[in-house]
TrEMBL record:
Occurrences of domain Non-canonical purine NTP phosphatase/PRRC1 (ranges): 8-157
SUPFAM superfamilies: ITPase-like
GO MF annotation: an example: nucleotide binding
Entry EC no(s): 3.6.1.73
Protein name: inosine/xanthosine triphosphatase
Gene source species: Oceanobacillus sojae
InterPro entries per record: ITPase-like_fam (IPR029001), NTPase/PRRC1 (IPR026533), YjjX_NTPase (IPR050299)
Stored PANTHER family: NON-CANONICAL PURINE NTP PHOSPHATASE_PRRC1 DOMAIN-CONTAINING PROTEIN (PTHR34699:SF2), PTHR34699
CC cofactor: Mn(2+); Mg(2+)
Lineage: Bacteria, Bacillati, Bacillota, Bacilli, Bacillales
């Protein structure tokens, strides 16, 4: 029987990242709540959002694997960085987490984030594009398209699958 992986988001950058790494698995997507702020503001909160999504995916499905990917922002000294976390939960109770690449955000984003509430709104206004979050993402914009949001999440999912494989070898 083919094992099922459920990704807790309909965002194509996240779904494709899981498909890239779990190419031999059936991959389904499910909208699940992160149960953290719409815009997490720390590593801790972003990671918890990823864990909540991963666990939310596996409930009720025996033998399945749930994955949560969550974007947030966090400070390093006085610079605001984009941060990303992933979590993988199994029906057997295993849990693995890993973080993704970080990149500094423009200084003016701090004030704008407080007004707009969500980075996606600030990004669309900054780039004069629509739905940056579902395409290249902030990381794509600020790396001049060298690293896309899907690339970044693909690396996070590799870190998750690698840990799962190591634990079960
Ligand atoms: O449908 P979901 O899975 O929620 O996908 P999302 O794009 O909203 O992604 P997250 O909830 O994980 O992101 C958390 C917040 O950070 C924003 N965000 C994170 N990374 C971003 C990016 O690369 N580009 C634009 N917005 C981003 C996003 O708008 C959310 O407010
Ligand atoms: Mg979201």
């Amino acid at each position: 029987m083919q094992q099922t992986v459920i990704i807790g988001s309909k965002n194509p950058t996240k779904v494709e990242a899981v498909r890239n790494v779990f190419s031999n698995f059936e991959v389904n997507s499910l909208e699940v709540p992160s149960n953290v702020s719409v815009q997490p503001f720390s590593d801790e909160e972003t990671r918890i959002g990823a864990i909540n999504r991963a666990k939310g995916c596996i409930s009720g499905e025996a033998g399945s694997i749930g994955i949560g990917l969550e974007g947030g922002v966090m400070y390093v000294d006085d610079t605001l960085f984009l941060c990303n976390w992933g979590a993988l939960a199994t029906a057997d109770g295993e849990l693995f987490t890993a973080s993704g690449a970080r990149i500094a955000l423009p200084k003016e984003f701090e004030k704008e984030l407080k007004t707009a509430g969500e980075l996606s709104v600030v990004m669309d206004a900054y780039t004069k594009k629509e739905n940056v979050r579902s395409h290249e993402g902030a990381i794509g914009i600020f790396t001049n398209n060298l690293v896309s949001r899907e690339d970044m999440f693909t690396h996070v999912v590799q870190l998750l699958k690698g840990q799962l494989d190591f634990a079960n070898k």
